[in-house]
Amino acid sequence: MSTSRATHPRIFNSLLGSAALAFLLIAIGLALPTKNRLENLEFQAQAKAASHAAASLRVSVSSLIAREWESLGSFGDLVDIDDPVSARQVSDAANKASTGILWAGVVGLDGIVIAGSDGLREGEDVSSYGWFKSGLHGVRVGGVYTPQHEGDDIGQRFNMSRPMLNSEGRVVGVAAYTMRFDWITNHIAASADAMEVQFGILDQQGDALATYAGFEDDPMIHELRRLASLGSERTNQSVGPDGKFVGALLPNFVQGEVPEFGWSLIVRLPSMPAQSIMSTAWNSLVLILGGAFIIIAAIAYLFAAHFLRPITDLIETADDMASGKLAYPTENATSHEAALLSGALARLQTSMETLKFQAKRS
Q1: Which of 161, 185, 222, 330 is most buried, most CB within 10 Å of its CB?
Q2: Can you tell me the distance from the alpha carbon of 73 to that of 273, in angstroms, rounded to the nearest whole number?
Q3: pLDDT tens figures, 52-67
Q4: How far is CA 220 from CA 117, 228, 248, 343, in A?
Q5: Can you tell me the distance from the alpha carbon of 203 to that of 262, in angstroms, rounded to the nearest whole number?
Q6: How far from 148 is each of 15, 145, 154, 211, 278, CA to CA, in Å?
Q7: Residue 157, helix vs strand vs coil
Q8: Cα–Cα distance for residue pair 5/11, rounded to 1 Å
Q9: pTM score, two decimals?
Q10: Sign for the pseudo-dihedral over CA of 219, 221, 226, 232
Q11: Phi-psi region of 94 (alpha: psi -120 to 50; beta: other; left: phi over 0)
């Protein structure tokens, strides 16, 4: 009998276990949808942050380039193309006016450089260059390139050119700047560091002009590069070995009174920063669920101890009585059921004692 009893769970323990299981199922049912919702809200917030960061960088860089583009127009107006000496002086002054200008020059209609800052490239025939041809008929910004045989260590650069007009409005030459590309990237990097974001710059073909600072292998980057040709702003999310990130694509991010650059900007930042909505709300939810578990466990234990334990004690007394052991049920009124059971056992005990007494007399 004792072996059979041991194989069945006690109702006291079953109640506590059932309460714990019910709480666990409720917690899972609440936590998973809540976690998914919080993650979605966090992505939306970070996607907006990435877009705002990209927009801020666009305003900053566009203002920077617009200033130099306006400077190029003023440079062309100041130069006397018929006076190479004064043209050289104006070119030198323009070159020294900005750290972004690597070279300033004036080119005649025949494609020969009339004057250049520090005398560089003077007399060179540039008639076959795209920036000269476009500069004769309009305004142009050339692609970013790295010279193969340049003596400096500047690296990437790009050209800006626009026509020079005389007093009658006729084109008499081309004014040109060769700009340092690292002047742009250093400016963006300083702003990006202040905003705690990473960035990359793409050309019109979607190829990288500026390195991604360690996130070039992020699959999100390849997706955004593919979307760059569509010409619309996009956001995306990626999960990699180094964490979750949100990225924003800003096509043609150089805007304003400047020619079409065709550059696109990619901004990346963690999808869940240290002090995030997700972490704060999740920690609060864990604390609430933990407190609820303690309260429910305490209530379940007190309920079982007050109402069920007396009944289990009476059941054990009944089992002892059935086994012929000398056992006396205790009076218990913790519940209606316990009172009925203890009274029934007391009457049963009296009846058994009466039967024993009668059996002895006979």
Answers
A1: 161
A2: 45
A3: 999 999 999 999 999 9
A4: 43, 12, 10, 75
A5: 6
A6: 81, 9, 12, 20, 50
A7: strand
A8: 12
A9: 0.69
A10: positive
A11: alpha
